[in-house]
Amino acid sequence: xxxxxxxxGFGNLIKNLGQVLTTPVTLTGRPLTPEELRRRRASxxxxxxxxxxxxxxxxxxxxxxxxxxxxxGKHTPNAIDxxxxxxxxxxxxVGLVIPGALAVVKGTVSRNGRRVAKSITIMNPK
Length: 126
Fold this sequence. Notes:
The protein is an alpha+beta fold and 126 residues long.
């Protein structure tokens, strides 16, 4: 009889442990109120938005992908098939970006129409 109660006691312990591990708490160990939990989640969401630069005026509206030969752009130093794109310090570049090189450029089009490259992969290094 004692063995059954210890087995059921273990099951209850596991069930209670799951509840304890999934309940948000403050540093003092007390459970968070629904209002505190809502404020923390909202704060975390604002931080994530600011990190991804979606709050500034030039927020990203859509994405683009260009494939072809790099040439001199009309309004920027580089273009592919007449489509200008900008290279920023945050652009990942694999290879050397020079006119005549075949490349794949992926990035975003901002609300003001600028194409900003997120990654450039040179297909045939010169």
